[in-house]
Amino acid sequence: MGGFFSSNNILFRMTERILDVCVLSLMWLVCSFPVLTVVPASSALYYSCVKCLRRGERGPYVNFLQAFRDNMKTGIGASAVFAALGLLLVWFNFMLGQLAPLTARIAYLIIMLLPAGMLSIVCAALSRFNCTVGSLLRDAAQLTIRHLPRVLAVAALNVLTVLTCIKYMFFMVWIFLPAVDALLVSLLLEPVLKKYTPMEEGLEDLPKEEWPWYLR
Questions:
Q1: Does any domain span residue 2?
Q2: φ/ψ (deg, to 5) at 100
Q3: What are the tens digits of pLDDT across the range 137-196?
Q4: CA dihedral sign of residues 172, 173, 179, 182
């Protein structure tokens, strides 16, 4: 019995990871409920998923709460900017629906992936770097332009996750999809963040497993 409940047991580790995915998703939903906390909550979810679920560090829930608290001020400011932008884009889309042909509306919906992708960059960058709202938005805009195909893929993944959660709400997919989405997004964005994360002096001489988790 001791072997079955051992932390090295593969079934135990899989069960623990599934539980972490579900709990982190629910924590994100609760923390995002006020709307203006969507950015700090999403940043905390990304941070805990990468640090703990992908890199094997301990304490995913503690890390989530710590990151959520630390990024609250900047995150709320960024959330307010994107909330205002979102309302403007939705209004403009409504106006297009009344006046513009179908092809123009489809093109506009595709263009709307840009702010959705930039929002993902904002959340990921906030999880890693200390910055003001202005510098965060400026850097996210630059990264969106420099890595446009990757950012558009992230935006499409996020939109698909949101639509799936809404369509299959009664199947309770929202219990696990937010964290799964964060993990998939991290596969696309971590190479970008690593590229702009300075390497500490002397790290090159150490084995990679001894590097900080965000550089592994």
A1: no
A2: -95, 155
A3: 999 999 999 999 999 999 999 999 999 999 998 989 999 999 999 999 999 999 999 888
A4: negative
Type of residue found at 131: C
Is the CB of residue 117 less than 8 Å from the CB of residue 152? yes
Is the residue at 118 inside a domain? Answer: yes
Tokens of 53: 């679920």
Three-state DSSP at 216 gives: coil
CA trace torsion 37, 40, 41, 42 (10° rounding): 120
Domains held by the chain: number: 1
91-114 pLDDT tens trace:
877 776 666 666 666 676 777 788
For residue 197, being part of any structural domain is answered with: no
Q: Which phi and psi angles does 23 have, rounded to 5°?
A: -65, -45
DSSP state of 198: P
Position 6, amino acid: S
14: in domain:
yes
Q: Which residues have C-beta within 8 Å of that of residue 13, sequence separation ≥ 6? A: 7
Could you tell me the residue range of the domain that residue 166 belongs to?
A: 10-189
